[in-house]
Amino acid sequence: MYVYNENDQKIIEERVAQFRGQTERYLAGELAEDEFLPLRLQNGLYIQRLAPMLRIAVPYGLLNSKQLRKLARIARTYDKGYCHITTRQNIQFNWPQLEEVPDILAELAEVQMHAVQTSGNCIRNTTTDQFAGVAQDELEDPRPWCEIIRQWSTFHPEFAFLPRKFKIAVCGTQGDRAAIQVHDIGLQIVRNDDGEIGFKVIVGGGLGRTPVIGSVIREFLPKEHLLTYLDAILRVYNRHGNRANKYKARIKILVRAWKPDVFAHEVEAEWDYIKETPASLTNEEINRVKSFFTAPDYQPIDDDNAEKELKKLSGEHLAFSKWLQRNITAHRVPGYAAVTLSLKPTGVAPGDITDQQLDAVADLADQYSLGEVRTTHNQNLVLADVKKSELFELWQKAKTGGFATPNIGTLTDMICCPGGDFCSLANAKSIPVAEALQRKFDDMDYVYDLGDLSLNISGCMNACGHHHVGNIGVLGVDKKGEEFYQIQLGGSADSDATLGKVLGPSFGREEMPEVIEKILNVYVENRKGDELFLDTYRRIGITPFKETVYAKDH
Amino acid sequence: MPKIIKDGQVVDDSWVIINKDFSGDLPMAKVLLPMQYWLDNKDSLNLMCAGIWIDSDEDVDTIGLEANQFPLIAVNFPTFVDGRGFSIARLLKERYEFTGQLRAIGSAIRDQLFYLKRCGFDSFDLKEGIDLESAAASLNDFSVTYQTSADQPEPLFRRG
Ligand code: HEM
Ligand code: SF4
Q1: What is the DSSP letter of A299?
Q2: What's the structural domain count of chain A?
Q3: Do residues A312 and A370 both lie within one domain?
Q4: B148/A279 CB distance under 8 A
Q5: Which of A13, A126, A107, A129 lies closest to A54 in space, CA to CA?
Q6: Total domain count for chain B?
Q7: A 167-186 residues with CB below 8 A of B?
Q8: Residue B29: which CATH number?
Q9: Which residues lie across from A203 on neighbouring strands?
Q10: Is the separation of the CB atoms in B53 and B31 below 8 Å?
């Protein structure tokens, strides 16, 4: 994990001082509301329905146990004892006091954390695959590149007041776990014919009210040019993005209006001026950052033995075997596994975690996973380096902590935005829908039988809950002041990224569990062998779903 | 006389900004002409003491290398959240090697001074009613920077 040096630490501390001054000026009436707004947003501070909301950056989802304990302390001291993991791997507090935010930021700075650029029209936290560095299918670890981007984007003087927010995601695998095609810039680490490592560059993806899958503007960008190329993209966007209408201000609208090849041409022309400048990366710097992400001291473990033992325990404990099936991901190193802790038990808002749980996860990380944890864009947590021989023990403790629900990747592992319970932009509540669905589908055998299936819920068209790319997407809509829900089918955030299609007229909240059940029935009746929901949908299309869901009762 | 921040100090300033819809005779003063006005009239203008100002939606490339004949160029921020001026400034300084005074005018606010300075601005005509003496402190909000910019040709990782 990257460790701050003096410079990194100083920058963060100076930010705390700067924001403290701004908050004081605001509270003293010296800084106007409209001027304070973008400043507080660039420190992650929204004003929401009930209270301010503070979004804390978790760069590319990586946390150590000390940071987790600090978050637990903040939840206890300044909030109501819990926080929320977001779809961009960050952490949100829902109830801090504005006056106390500078103190919270000061506490975070003690553990090399901050809320820099977690909101506002600037370059946001860079996200990646939660299995970065341990994934079996990885070409190269994306985290050093994310850190290089973090440093470049932190207080970038030219790009702090962009037309709109700007999100970058990086992945190091062919199968995409970071949803890079629905980001303003998606970077995929690739190897060219000469065996060199570089990036495929995708721009102009995004969700929100105009969902778009990004376009490839460069098949191979040599790695030393990463930052100058990003500078070129951002400069073209900063100069030409729409500033008159915030709904047309994202880069995706510009790329679409110009066409991707024209946009690419503009970027290349800009890049020609700046690519051979000192801003390009050096090998020393790349290696310096990489040195923080070298493989830890894995112990040589007999994988066959470990597997045998797991098999035996699975036979004795059915629940453990379910957990192994759903919550464990293969690790690149024999004898190790990556464990996903589910933050989706029934009855808890998806992605919420209490202070006690944060402390408990910190203990688990220290004991079983080299003291580190990752947040996932599916709003769960990952312990990435667990010995297979310790999985059983870990499972027992995870159960006690409340995060061993064996539902990862299934229907009940929903992505869900805060919705109308917290968010002032909401058309409808989303958390109660998630809960109603979890209660309806509490038969785990049924859920397992459905297999991999993503159900994503957003409370409005801003799409914080990724509803466009859920196999089943639920969108809160407002009809004459009443809350309704529209359903979309067939979305995917994987390397075959697809936007869902609207099923038809929307439903009231109480109808939702039954409607989803009908959709699932259509799948179950039509699937061939162990075909997944998405594949069945792609084969049979939306019509059979429509016919069943909107069939007139006889 | 109006006050501005220049090279970190609060100083008097006598430049007069000429609006885009200006007509008639230019005042007998140091004038900042709208870029387009200057482009349209440059052959007939005989001004020793003129600078230009560029609006955020104007294309700095049209002035390009001609920039260097001016002692002062101003860049307008119609609203402080319109960040195009940051790119205009860097292009003037880094691409067109403008060496004169570069001034932010319009609605830029104190909390942007550090970024503005990094992009090459050295004088700041902030909105009226701002305490310039205390605002000037924000020019130095940070003592370390990661990226290259107009004020720093080398990124932190090359500075050792
Ligand atoms: C409660 C306060 C929140 C507010 C006011 C808010 C506001 C917004 C708005 C206005 C957009 C649309 C931007 C656009 O299309 O240009 C958006 C998009 C998004 N937000 Fe939120 N959001 C909030 C919380 C969250 C949370 C909790 C998450 C994660 C669970 C999240 C993740 C996202 C994502 C992933 C997108 C869409 C992707 C994209 O940018 O294209 N937001 N948000
Ligand atoms: S999708 Fe809408 S309701 Fe949900 S958090 Fe985003 S802005 Fe709020």
Answers
A1: P
A2: 4
A3: yes
A4: yes
A5: A107
A6: 1
A7: none
A8: 3.20.20
A9: A185, A215
A10: no
| Alpha-carbon span A50 to A10, nearest angstrom | 34
Residues in chain B closer than 8 A to A157 (CB atoms): 86, 114-116, 118-119, 145, 147, 149
Integer Cα distance of A262 and A294 in angstroms: 40
Sheet architecture: strand order including B123-124: B9-12, B3-6, B123-124, B101-106, B72-77, B50-54, B31-34, B16-17
Distance of alpha carbon B113 from alpha carbon B92, whole angstroms: 18
How many Å lie between the centroid of ligand 2 and the Cα of residue A69? 28
Distances (CA, A) of A154 to A278, A532, B149: 18, 41, 13
CA-based angle B148:A277:A181, to the nearest 5? 75
User: Cβ distance A495 to A510 under 8 Å?
Assistant: no
Find the chain B residues whose C-beta atoms sit closer than 8 A to any C-beta of A: 80-84, 86-87, 90, 95, 109, 111-112, 114-116, 118-119, 138, 141-149, 153-158
> Which range marks the domain in which residue B87 is found?
3-158
User: What is the rounded CA–CA span in Å between residue B40 and residue B74?
Assistant: 18
**Cα distance between residue A333 and residue A331, in whole Å:** 5
CA of A425 to nearest chain B CA: how many angstroms apart? Answer: 22
Q: How high is the mean pLDDT in each 10-residue block of chain A (554 residues)? A: 94 94 91 88 79 91 96 96 91 90 95 94 95 94 97 97 96 92 96 96 94 96 98 98 95 97 98 95 97 92 95 95 95 96 92 96 97 95 97 96 94 94 92 95 93 96 94 95 95 91 96 97 95 97 96 71
Tell me which H or E stretch contains A231.
helix A226-240
Classified as helix, coil or strand, A483 is strand
Query: Is residue A459 lining ligand 2, measured as CB closer than 6 Å?
Result: yes
A500 lies in which domain range?
A: 415-549
pTM of the predicted protein model: 0.93
- A 10 A CB-CB count for B137 gives 12
The verdict on A215 and A177 lying in the same domain is: yes
Instruction: Give bridge partners of residue A216 from the DSSP assignment.
Output: A202
In this prediction, the answer to ipTM > 0.95 reads yes
